[in-house]
Design a protein that fits this description.
Layout lengths: L10 H5 L38 E6 L5 H15 L6 H18 L5 E8 L2 E8 L7 H14 L1 H9 L3 E6 L7 E8 L1
Antiparallel strand pairs: 1-2, 2-3, 3-5, 4-5
Helix pairs in contact: 2-3, 3-5
Amino acid sequence: MHSSPIAALCPAAAETRTPVPYPHPTLQTNPQPYPQPHPQPYLRPKGHSGRGLGLSFTLPGDVRSAFIGRTVVATALEAHGLARYVWPATHVVDELVAVTARMSPGRELYVSLRHRDDAVRLLVWDQHPHHADPDMAALCETRRRRALWLLAAVVDDWGGEWGASEANPPQRGTKSWVQLPR
């Protein structure tokens, strides 16, 4: 079976694609002992969240980061007594991280999870630059929206909203967000 690297969604990013930044541990020449112990993250226990859930983290710009995003979001929601949101929120973060990683491969992604006023809000910010050429910008936006068809279906089923827009200056890139109501 022939395997090829996952293609970038943006035509401009595809032309300047960098090598995969996080090779598989067994393919390294001097692999570290695997798995390495990691400290457990601090999560407030259920019922003691004060103002509500607020979590932000950065992920490598790689489609494999979607698994990490799903795991972190599910754990945080359960720790804050918001298990009813686990199914849609994990699907949402999975899709957002996988697609945004393909828009700007190799660049870090910022993920934010908030629960306020009986709604969960997820935001993924990628460093994909805005294109000066209007045709290229339209093509990128179309490809991003088409790639997020499953996210759109989940959000619609839950009565939520979603969108993507250019980041506010001085930041660069695109912010994709989802709001899931109660």
